[in-house]
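Bumping with the actual sequence this time:
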Amino acid sequence: MSVVDLILPKLGESIMEATILKWHKALGDTIQLDETLLDIATDKVDSEIPSSAAGTITEILFEVNAVVPIGTVIARIQTSGSSTPTPTIETIQASAAIVPVPEPIVVEEVPFTPSATNVEIQQENSNDARFFSPLVLNIAQNEGISLNELQQIPGTGNQGRVSKKDILNYVAQKKAGHAPTLNVSQPTTNTSAPISSAQTTDSSSSNHFLPADHGFNTSNGVVKFANPDEVVVTGNTEIIEMDRMRKLIAKHMVESVQTSPHVTSFVEADVTNMVVWREKVKQLFEKREGTKLTFTPMFMECIAKVLEQFPYINCSLQGDYIILKKDINIGMATALPSGNLIVPVIKGANQLSIVGLSKAVNNLANAARNNQLKPQDTQGGTFTVTNVGTFGSIMGTPIIPQPQVAILALGAIKKRPVVIETPSGDAILVRHMMYLSMSYDHRIVDGAMGSSFLSAVAKEFEQWDQNRQWFQYV
């Protein structure tokens, strides 16, 4: 008989801890090799951790909702073998199908401990508390399910908790008109929420604000006053604690600024050729390839090509050593329905055709929006692109995701009159223009290299072939 330590595996270069959501086994239970032992959550994704051995659970070292550092022993399993060696982190990574990445040098830090409001949600005017995983909360928000309604959904998980299956079944029944009737009480007035001026007075004095010659009610019930002196400023505020993912994003961003001296360069690109080509082929492309053609894979193809020419942009820094990455894995910053941000990674972007890049971009974006990303989907990035133009920004100054050394921001495409040199002289034409901006780590990338790389990317954009046949590159 021997005892095997189960270690919380490494889940990505920037992930240093994880929250335990659920234990699938209890003390004394038997478990098979690769059978799911527990669910965990990180600032990236929720995932299942399999057992690295078959045997009997003899120790569970952490409770549900505990925040555990990576590499920590979380449970022990007694096996029937005579001399089973203690598995290493690399062994558990392989069993969990997690792609190992080079271990970065990490400054010692105090682990983040979530507050009570981070792991419990209190129902108003009730002493009952229920735990909801980040995945369940995201699904509820995406489907427009209120907190009171979520509290009433029966759960089949541990201690009656609502699982992913429970909420998806409820959503499906609700959409089909067969959802069970829930006893959802009307929320009480939130005294911390902003209120209108009409709400700040009692019934005996409210008429002072409502005469026809002084103010009127708008369609949403807010009183509009003609006299500025009648406006009532309450000074009321609402305090909202950041969720776990937002706290970790904030911590990572602060660490990045403290680690890397950021420099940002800007360049303008004429992407008219790209716009014309995409408009010409996008319908046939979708019909033939079964996936939509957006600008993102077109941009990714050009960026990957230029990265091959600038290896010091596709690297990381560990102490006094520069690690040149031979693979070009481009992360694409993606906004989640919750308002948070995640960066899925396109592995081997320089090896993919425009069709392959389109499928990779669309598949990862859909998985991110539906909370279906796997741990390996966010690992191994060597360079990152963020499309700030999606939300209307013409340029940005993004923060580098550690341990990478650069991040490129793509601005919105705008039509503008531009002076063009022609054989017959200068001419003013309407062109599709966009700004590119790149933040880079000045410890490794100097202004000459950063600006040269950025200019080369803009040139690739501008030289896109309007007559290109994409199916020749499949």
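The tokens above came from a reply further down the thread. The chain has four domains: 2-95, 116-175, 197-230, 244-473.
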